[in-house]
Amino acid sequence: MTTATCLDGEWKLIYFPQGKWPIHHPNELNSLNLPCISAQVPGNVELDLVRSGLISEPFLGTNINELRPYELYEWWYSLEFSAPPTMAGKRTELVFQGVDCCATYWLNGEELGSSDNMLIEIRLETTHSLLCDGVNKLFVRLRSPIIEAMQRSTDAICYGPLTNGEQLFVRKAPHNFGWDIMPRVVSAGIWRSVSLVAREDHAWSELYFYTLSVDKNLSAAQIGLFYRVATDPAYFYHGLEIRVTGKSGTSEFQMSRPVLFNTGSLTISLTNPQLWWPHGYGEAHLYEVTTELIYQGRTLASHTERIGVRQVDFIRTETTTVEAGGEFLFKVNHISIMCKGSNWVPMDAFHSRDASRYKNALQLFSDTGCNIVRCWGGNVYEDHAFFDFCDSHGLMVWQDFAMACAVYPQTPEFSESIRLEARSVVKKLRNHASLVLWCGDNECDEAYQWYGLPDPGVNQITRNLLPQMIQQYDPHRAYLPSSPYLSPEVIRSGNMNLAPERHLWGPRDYYKSTFYKTSTDHFISEIGYHGCPNLSSIQKFIEPDHLWPFNSKDEQWMAHATEVSGSQGHNATRIQLMANQIKELFGAIPESLEDFILASQISQAEAKKFFIETARLKKWRKTGIIWWNMIDGWPQFSDAVVDYYYGKKLAFHYIKRSQAPVCIMIDEPENWHVRVAAGNDSRESVAGTYRIWDADSNETLIEGSFEVEANGTSELGKIPISHAKQQLFLIEWNFNGRTYGNHYLLGFPAFSLKTYKSWLPQIAAISNEFQADEIGR
């Protein structure tokens, strides 16, 4: 049992350029007339400055650039609070779930400790003598992470992007220092909740549940539990026991065992278990499990949580070739899973707002039929609420550790920081059924190649330290060193295309170019295409004088591209890239903003639909696609299919159709025909009827009945075509009393935007899932 007092709410905040006054203790603040404003916890200092009227809304125009001077400030938070009488005489801790990031803590004038990692929980023990019966005063000093980074030692192997090299030396979310999808916001703040916690005399300090096995007939399973208990050692010899009780629907279990030491493990056998399945493959069943510590019939400690029973096998090879093949495959409960999902990027440039966006953002994944989400390594680690949603909605989670696109230090100091971070994060998240893979980083193996460095196998962080931490704290879950992982065999070959899992960015040219059509990978974990936000959203972050005409050098468009190094920087080209992709598909850049938005959204929608369906049509050579990305973390022009304000682009609707568990699709032309196939990503065979017709003439091109085996693909026939034509084929199918729709765009660009606009209502009308006249608005 744990007693806690929440310390969230209104605090006070003093701030000034670091070093301007050499203050080392809160008492020294009283002698200076320093700025002091009200602050919210959880919060970010910039949001407090906005609320106080000291700075403008950062997301409007180019205001985000005005935050740069505050990177060199220090910030002093303070709070007066009273501890409840129930805590008298108990051991207490101050628990900070997230502090950004280089902090020192004082309680009633006494220094409690320090921390320097934004990404993990901080616990500070407070002795009873420090905690007053009356009013207590808590101070938290946050130092500049930029100045801190300058003072850290490093080694010559370190490399990072020109615009954000500081990310290598402080444990903040890498994107904070500026990225191609996020602005530079080197923020500070107490960004997650704070509480004063009193520990009871008896408590479970660790409970780690895991699935040992699931019978191939799915009729039996074994789960394991590792536990650690905090109690008086004398109890171990006088009838102390552990009792575990679980229930999911009609499935129940209970087990009791003596507790003879403070740690132990046990195995529980289940008959006819309620298994956890990814979306589309079954229900995401969860057991409510209560673990009790019992002494002579009296419950000393009790903990309840939800766990999933599922066996996940991650099967991969070091390389792949067209001739010899290879593998990169997730199996859940012995069933191969066709993975379809999106990358999870920062929910907000100011992370104190993340939690408020979880539910709506994650619902987008469920609405589009995703069964996997990849938590990208440039971000923070999400909280339990995120994983709880994924647990209950059948969303498998691929979790990167928070390193991205750089060659990180190999110093003992940095290794120790990562060791502590991994231990904290792994132990926090390991009980979630949705978590299927730990990954060492995002694109750091590739970064070695970008910077002309040796084999990334020399990276001791991802090759030794992190796998050791997984083996120590979560040995029943798979680990991948990097995404993409460049194995020794791939490095020796000199051909990065031999990696079985890849990020397909390349030239970002026409979405049906050779680059996209001939990739040999099995699993695509990043692939994207630009799409303009809706007009109503753009008007919230671009001022009227900058809206139109289109100008790839406009400072406000460029600021929201995202660009962090000026008009000559790499990311400044993203606006022109979006225009070029429009021109590639339609032959010209439209003359109005409304048509520019619509043309861009059509280009993106057709591209992402093509990427997903190409993967499904090549099942099981292709085993998964995690496209980039679902929703923006700030207002911008990007690859996201939903903008920061939850405005859905056309691609959202096309993806929803392409990712349906049962989908009828049309392959690319071959020998003057296109192949029609039905894909079934479920554990049940399906049968129904279908029709495909020409959008202009309404002529039926092919129709009939279809049947597809479980987790299979069936060819339904072929339609003769002419390469000289540009046509829209409309597809409709019915099974289990429901109608579904899709379409196929035949022909080579340039297409007529006017013609496509006339087709759009017909595309929308199939199964009536969206309104054509709302697209781009």
UniProtKB/TrEMBL annotation:
<dbReference type="InterPro" id="IPR050887">
    <property type="entry name" value="Beta-mannosidase_GH2"/>
</dbReference>
<keyword id="KW-0378">Hydrolase</keyword>
<dbReference type="InterPro" id="IPR006102">
    <property type="entry name" value="Ig-like_GH2"/>
</dbReference>
<keyword id="KW-0326">Glycosidase</keyword>
<dbReference type="InterPro" id="IPR017853">
    <property type="entry name" value="GH"/>
</dbReference>
<dbReference type="InterPro" id="IPR013783">
    <property type="entry name" value="Ig-like_fold"/>
</dbReference>
<feature type="domain" description="Beta-mannosidase-like galactose-binding">
    <location>
        <begin position="36"/>
        <end position="192"/>
    </location>
</feature>
<dbReference type="InterPro" id="IPR036156">
    <property type="entry name" value="Beta-gal/glucu_dom_sf"/>
</dbReference>
<feature type="domain" description="Glycoside hydrolase family 2 immunoglobulin-like beta-sandwich">
    <location>
        <begin position="260"/>
        <end position="310"/>
    </location>
</feature>
<comment type="similarity">
    <text>Belongs to the glycosyl hydrolase 2 family.</text>
</comment>
<dbReference type="Pfam" id="PF00703">
    <property type="entry name" value="Glyco_hydro_2"/>
</dbReference>
<dbReference type="InterPro" id="IPR054593">
    <property type="entry name" value="Beta-mannosidase-like_N2"/>
</dbReference>
<dbReference type="InterPro" id="IPR008979">
    <property type="entry name" value="Galactose-bd-like_sf"/>
</dbReference>
<dbReference type="Pfam" id="PF22666">
    <property type="entry name" value="Glyco_hydro_2_N2"/>
</dbReference>
<protein>
    <recommendedName>
        <fullName>beta-mannosidase</fullName>
        <ecNumber>3.2.1.25</ecNumber>
    </recommendedName>
</protein>
